[in-house]
Amino acid sequence: MNTIFKSFPAIFLQVCILSLAACNQSANKTSTASTMTDSTTTATLPPSSGFEKTIDDKQTHLYILKNKNGVQAALTNYGAHLIRLAVPDKAGKMTDIVLGFDNIDAYKKALSAYYGATIGRYGNRIAKGHFVLEGRRYDLFINNKPNTLHGGEKGFNDVIWDAKQINDHTISFTYLAKDMEEGYPGNLNCKVTYELTDDNAVKISYEATTDKTTVVNLTNHSYFNLNGVGSGTILNHEVQLKAGNYTPVDSTLIPNGKIEPVTGTPFDFTKPATIGSRINDNNEQLKNGKGYDHNFVLDKHDITTPIATVIGDKSGIKLEIFTKEPGLQFYSGNFMTGGNTLLGGKTDDYRTGFAMETQHYPDSPNQPQFPSTVLKPGETYKTVTIYKFSVVK
Ligand code: GLA
């Protein structure tokens, strides 16, 4: 357990556990709406009714994970989305820090998509919607002109996964993406496992195998607001990245092929800086991204040390990210337009959430100098990312 939580009075833990028990009598698939509203918590669980649907002849549900500190996460097998995550702030108040919706229809209608979703078969952009693999050209759906973004027209965020809840803190989702689904070759068997650990971390493990050579780049697209969902801008959050280089992009957000040092640029987060401190600098890359929407080349990616640290200025909630992936897409919510009603009636707006998507570099299938995203029959794609939460006082 994290030392910060060790020092919490026992009474606080008891209140959390009691309120959790009262709110969530069924630890697994929830059968009733529940809201945590006692004096120590403001976090909410979504009503399960909004997630009980039949889509593409498959049943969707809401699933709850919990740990011994009263931290809880809500997920659905629709797009293997992380819907909610509530963690304690510096005063011990449970705070929702992942942007999500109260029902599946809202996910489908969202103005800017991908909230908390599992992204695949290829996370981020593929230039002009095509690539060549083993001498054959594959054409994809262009859903983000002139490129393909996050898998295409119906990415893994919009399909129904099979769910298997392993215990009260672990769930696995599996999905078979068919050969040529969205234009990608190979039947791809995918598994994503979410584990909520007792040190207040969400560990996401990905696995995939194929029967034909293909490309794979899976990630999670949670938007975080560490001050709490609906609490306003993320521009005062402090960020530190262990990334001495990044991949500059053209005006359509496709890497120009170079790997450039961040030194002396607004992309230098090797020392802590707030997201907003340089976001409006007169810088061509910031103009191309309309803010931060870039792949950072991670110095190390072996999950022994955090590659990213973000602190909510008001809440003191600290997020540390560990990953086996070579890149981190840091997106400062530049395309968020507002107009979405989030959990419990809260709303989003421009730059009120940020995403840190651990992944291979955008457009790797067309850029052989980047780490390869090719998966061959007989190989297993395996990767892990951990989002760990604690507080600074
Ligand atoms: C990724 C992309 C962004 C944006 C979001 C979704 O982070 O890099 O440009 O498309 O997804 O809105």
Structural commentary:
By secondary structure, this protein is mainly beta. It contains 4 helices and 29 strands. The protein has a 9-stranded antiparallel beta sheet with strand order 12-13-14-15-29-25-24-19-22, with no helix packed on it. It has a 6-stranded antiparallel beta sheet with strand order 18-27-26-23-20-21, with no helix packed on it. Strands 3-4-5-6 form a 4-stranded antiparallel beta sheet, with no helix packed on it. Strand 4 (72-76) and strand 5 (81-88) form a beta hairpin. The relative contact order is 0.15. Mean pLDDT is 90; it is low at 1-28 and 30-41. Bound molecules: alpha-D-galactopyranose.
Q: Could you give the order of strands across the largest sheet?
A: 12-13-14-15-29-25-24-19-22
Distance between the termini: 18 Å
Poorly predicted regions: 1-28, 30-41
The overall pLDDT, averaged over residues, is 90
Backbone shape:
globular
Largest sheet: 9 strands, antiparallel
User: Helix content range of the residues, please?
Assistant: under 10%
Oligomeric state of this protein: single chain
The proportion of strand residues reads 25-35%
State Rg. 20 Å
Number of helices: 4
**Which class do the helix and strand fractions yield?**
mainly beta
> What ligands are attached or bound here?
alpha-D-galactopyranose
